[in-house]
Design goal:
With 136 residues, the chain is an all-alpha fold. It contains seven helices and no strands. The longest helix has 25 residues. It is extended, with a radius of gyration of 20 Å.
Length: 136
């Protein structure tokens, strides 16, 4: 009886092999971008577009593709078998995509600081403090 209670489902029983392969591909490419970023940081490469900190670089565009593919696959699986949590996660992913693509996080401080003034903290100007609060 204890064997039945302690049995955990195997990964293949919970996640389809197709979905698992996509996740592994995404993680492998993410690790590749991290390695390229390290090589860029130490001067072994000179392609700034591959840097993780480059605005509108390859890594950021790749992140947008992941957001859209993940949200789309969640919406497609919702159509097949329901599950409102998939709609919620798809909405979250679409919000993250739009927030990053339209750069709300970079401009929120300029709008909030005149309404709710904050002092400078840790060397950050007040508008950047608001951006940090928004980012959390």
């Amino acid at each position: 009886m204890n064997k039945v209670l302690l049995r955990l489902p195997r990964l293949r029983e919970v996640v389809s092999p197709f979905a698992l392969n996509w996740v592994l591909l995404f993680v492998a490419v993410d690790v590749g971008y991290c390695l390229v970023h390290v090589l860029l940081t130490y001067g072994f490469l000179n392609f700034h577009s591959f840097s993780l900190s480059a605005e509108r670089g390859y890594a950021e565009n790749y992140q947008y593709i992941k957001y859209i593919l993940a949200a789309g696959s969640l919406l497609l699986t919702f159509r097949e078998d329901g599950g409102w949590i998939r709609i919620a996660f798809a909405g979250l992913l679409l919000f993250l995509f739009l927030e990053d693509a339209l750069a709300f996080h970079e401009h929120v401080g300029a709008y909030l600081n005149p309404l709710f003034p904050l002092p400078a903290v840790a060397g950050l100007p007040p508008s950047e403090v608001w951006s940090a609060i928004y980012g959390v």
